[in-house]
Amino acid sequence: MSTQESEDRLELLQGTLDLLILRTLIFGPQHGQGIARAIQQTSDEELLVEHGALYPALQRLEERRWISAKWGISTNNRKARFYSLTSAGRKQLVKETTRWKRLAAAIGRILVSEEG
Amino acid sequence: MFRRKRKTGDFSAEIEAHIQHETERLREQGLSDEDARAAARRAFGNVTKSRERFYKSGRWLWWDNLWRDIRFALRLLRKSPGFAAVAVATLAMAIGANAVVFSILNALILRPLNVPQAESLYEIQRTISKYPMQSYPDYLDLRDRNRRFDGLAAFNLNAAGLDTGENPTRVWVYEVSGNYFDALGIQPYLGRFIHASDEHGPDSAPYIVLTYTYWHTNFQDDRGVVGRKILVNKHPFTIVGVAPPEFHGTVLFLSPDLFIPIVNHGQLEAENNLNDRGNRWVFMVIGHLKAGVSPAQAVADLNSIGSYLEKTYPKDDGHMSFALTRPGLIGDVLGPPIRAFVTGLMLLAGLILLAACANLGSLFAARAADRSREVALRLALGASRLRILRQLFTEAILISLVGGAVGLWVSVVVLRGLSVWQPFARIPLHVPVTPDANVYGVALLLTLASGFLFGAVPVRQVLHTNPYEIVKSGSMGRAGRRISVRDVLLVTQIALCAVLVTSSMVAVRGMVRSLHSNFGIEPRNVTLVNTSLNMAGYSGDAVPPMQRRMIDAAQTIPGVISVGLVDEPPLSGGGNTKNVFTDTTTDLRPGNAAAQPSIFDISPEYFDAAGTPLLLGRALSWHDDKNSPRVAVVNQEFARRVFGSAAHAVGGYFKSRDGTRIQVVGIVEDGKYLSLTEDQQPAMFLPILQSPSSESWLVVRANGQVPQLGEAIKTTLRGLDAGLPLFIETWDQAMTLVLFGPLMATLSLGVFGAIGALLSLTGIFGMAAYSVSKRLRELGIRMALGAQRKQVLQAALGRAFKLLAFGSAAGLVLGILASRVLASIVYSATPRDPLVLAGVVLAMALLGLLATWIPAQRALSLDPVALLREE
Fold first, then answer.
1. Does pLDDT of B474 surpass 50?
2. What is the pTM of this model?
3. Is B339 helix (H, G, I), strand (E, B) or coil?
4. At B564, which helix (H) or strand (E)?
């Protein structure tokens, strides 16, 4: 069902995936599929996360030591690789969030003025 | 960079887990098993692409490529084992030579003495002399008046007879000032050290400190040795302590057996020199500079003390200005020649490495040319040039690493041998040249550097490869270039090798010549017996009769022709010099001296036994004793300097430092006295009855080789006194000390020359073999068209020979220029020697013939028909 509707969803802007991952992980450790689900659900199924793109992003964040990973057992008793936020990642999240808000506000102002 | 890498398998497992999770979720939403799985996969997108992105993001790609390059290089090398073996052996030789020489440099020059704060430890030396000796009263003044040193210590090298109750043995001692150990800042291993508070005037401190080595080998680590009494030169001493294992004295070349207070000097020597200000016998004065004091400030302070001494003691102290040097290599005595020699060796070793790199570089260039088709194919298939260069470098570095490892291994074996080597029977050497971290580091650095150096030679070739042309025509058609990089490399390499061969020949020839030159003595068939009557408890008037008895006793041994006695024979590593004045001089200050001859106290038969020809006048006799006028025999140089000519000298008088008039009664032939390379020095010989010395060397000349002569001498002399410490060696052996420098120079240059010859051999061989194999087809066609053997050879090898001749000539000229330096080390080494020139030319020509023999045979045995059919 959900996959059928994918055409109507919004594609992610370049560079926003990292921010969304970090934001999702603030609620505690989560595995890749969980992160993808969480982003989709919290955005009211508006945002499309291509699952294949998620993992290189996770890999990148891990190499920057913003998140750390550990194999564990998921709620439905399967093996999964769980990611959690590091303190460096927390700082990065704050920084990125501020940046994003400023960007969004600026773009919003421009769009509003054009409408007016 | 060094974090553990995540494996690809781990990443795949994660993706699989994701798809399973997603499938399960979809199934819960009501999809069938199959649909759910398909949908999950769709949502994931391209799994392979995702994996690829992961792979590229990590550093896996880099490592994988490296691993692939290494495996490829290994495969290639296995395919040409000859090339690999030659390359590895060449580099192993070069790296090994460098590692050995650098270890020696490291041990002798870079590594300081093994004492705390060695960097602030200096030796005090008078600027007028390159020797460090001071007189004891001067030392006391320097110690007490200076304000820039943290205590000045003095020590003297001496030998003593040690009697622990059994066989009396001769030991090497440092006579040390009371503050010696405290000034150096060393703690005892066992018991206590000697301190300044032990000194209460002459012979007041009968204490001994053993070195760890002596304690270990002669007292079997017996901790109860402290407090034990032993006899030194028949005087009782008490062992108070043992020095730590890492302390081997303050001169690199002489590690002592024990330490004795210098105030007890009178018990070691017949005459007590502690109060003689003009007698500079204290071997060295050393001390740590106070913190923050510069050497210049210390020198200024010392010089002000010096001018005070000059004013106060004008008769004894002249030229009292000072300089600071390093004690390890005895300041300016051994320091400059050893430093020059080792640095020179290091340069030559560097040349060898360069030659080896040139050699390998041309081999690699040839190889790259052979592989031009493969390279072109890879380029055509889309490989980047960078990738291909990386592969070539991997191969070069691989070879250099293997070669370096082999070379280092060989050098470690050689150095282990050198470290325990004792070239001099009489003098204990302690120069640990075993490699340390420095050596390994330098070897690795040189290895990598040379790998990149010779690996870089074919770079241009690869960068300019035109894949289209090569795949089309089969090989690089670069006939236009007259002189290739390879030619230049070969000429350079041959020139470098010719330098090595030339200098080794110059050295060997100089050595041979110096062995046959006139020393003023005839060492063959002479046995030297060193004994100190002082060590056996004889002193004063008891000494001369005993010496006479020893001479007479030795004379009765069958096979002995003549026996003489001397206080210390020439060219045995030591010697005394004293100022003499003309008869008319009245002001006997050091500055007015007419000459500073070597002094030998001899028995009348000495000239016969030593083989020194008497030219004029008479020899000395047993009648020249205390009751008759003082006489001397002098050498020609002495006569020239003091009297103007030999004819004037006989019958003439000269004065010694204390004003005694001495008459010259005879002239002997000039000789060498302290070293083989010295300029002609004056010498005088005094009768032992007028100038007594308890230090005695019997010079025993035998009638040819007499078996068991040493044993016979020992039995005979021990028959006179069982307590005599004896040390017996042939004169040739005793001369190893003065021959050591030139011998080492000759040996190392000989080895370098051999390595150089070997390198040029492989270099020419590689070049010739390559040029023949490259032109097989052309040669075949020439032969088919009727070319003669001579013409074929000329076509095949003419270029190799031309390069060889050019390189050799350049090397010969360079070698002759470089050999001027050699003349200072190897006595009578001169490059302007027709034999050397002819030798070098002959050697290089032989090498050329040898190296081109196999390629020439290959060219001549070509079967043109078979060859032409092949293509």
1. yes
2. 0.68
3. helix
4. strand B560-566
The answer to the question of residue B72 being in a domain is: no
Class of domain A2-115: mainly alpha
Does the pLDDT of residue B471 top 60, yes or no? yes
Residue B167 pLDDT: 67
In this prediction, what percent of chain B has a pLDDT beyond 90?
7
DSSP for B702-732, please give it: ESS--TTHHHHHHHHHHHH-TT---EEEEHH
Mention every residue, 6+ apart, whose C-beta is less than 8 A from residue B278. B135, B315, B316, B317, B657
- The beta-carbon neighbor of B45 closest among A50, A79, A81 is A50
Most confident of A21-30, B104-113, B512-521, B735-744: A21-30
Same-domain pairing of B201 and B305: yes
Average pLDDT over residues B208-224: 87
Which member of A36, A60, A80 has the closest CB to residue B17?
Answer: A80
Q: Is the pLDDT of residue B470 over 70?
A: no
Q: CA dist B447 to B60, B72, B403, B762, B824, Å?
A: 27, 21, 8, 20, 32
- Whether the CB of A80 is below 8 Å from some CB of chain B: the reply is yes
Say whether pLDDT at B162 is over 90: no
In angstroms, the CA B497 to CA B351 distance is 8
Domain-located, residue B93: no
What token pair was written down for A77?
């008793």
List of chain A residues whose C-beta atoms are within 8 Å of the C-beta of residue B21: 31, 33-34, 74, 76, 78, 80
- Cβ atoms B412, B435 nearer than 8 A: yes
Give the H/E segment covering residue B173.
strand B169-176
pLDDT number for residue B1:
36
- What residue ranges do the domains of chain A occupy? 2-115
Burial of residue B445, with CB atoms counted within 10 A of its CB: 0-12 exposed, 13-18 middle, 19 or more buried: exposed
Q: What is the pLDDT of residue B478?
A: 47
Q: Quick one: B255 and B139 in the same domain?
A: yes
Bridge partners (DSSP) listed for residue B542: none
What band does B510 get if pLDDT is binned at 50, 70 and 90? confident
Option in B22, B24, B50 nearest A55 (CB): B50
Give the range of the structural domain holding residue B53, as residue numbers without chain letter. 8-58
The interface predicted TM-score of the complex, written ipTM, equals 0.80
Answer yes or no: do B184 and B159 share one domain.
yes
Residue B290, number of CB atoms within 10 A of its CB: 15
- Closest-CA residue of A relative to B52 is A56
What band does B687 get if pLDDT is binned at 50, 70 and 90? very high
The answer to whether position B390 is within a domain reads yes
Same domain? B124 vs B257? yes
- How many other C-beta atoms are found inside a 10 Å radius of the C-beta of residue B387? 13
B363 and B271 co-located in one domain: no
Same domain, yes or no, for B722 and B755?
A: no
Is residue B814 situated within a structural domain? yes
What residues contact B552, with CB distance under 8 A and at least 6 apart? Answer: none
B859: tokens are 């060219």
C-beta atoms of B24 and A76 within 8 A: yes
A95 close contact with B: CB closer than 8 A: no
Residue B772 has pLDDT above 80, yes or no: no
Residues B220 and B246 in one domain: yes
* CA-based nearest residue to B228, from B179, B173, B191: B191
Burial (CB count within 10 angstroms: exposed 0-12, middle 13-18, buried 19+), residue A108: exposed
B491 shares a domain with B582:
no
Number of domains in chain B: 4
pLDDT at B482 over 70: no
Query: Could you say which of B58, B76, B100 is where a domain stops?
Result: B58
**Three-class secondary structure of residue B397 per DSSP:** helix
- Chain A residues with beta carbon closer than 8 angstroms to that of B15: 55
Mean pLDDT of B418-445: 76
Tell me how far apart the 2 most distant CA atoms of chain B are, in Å: 136
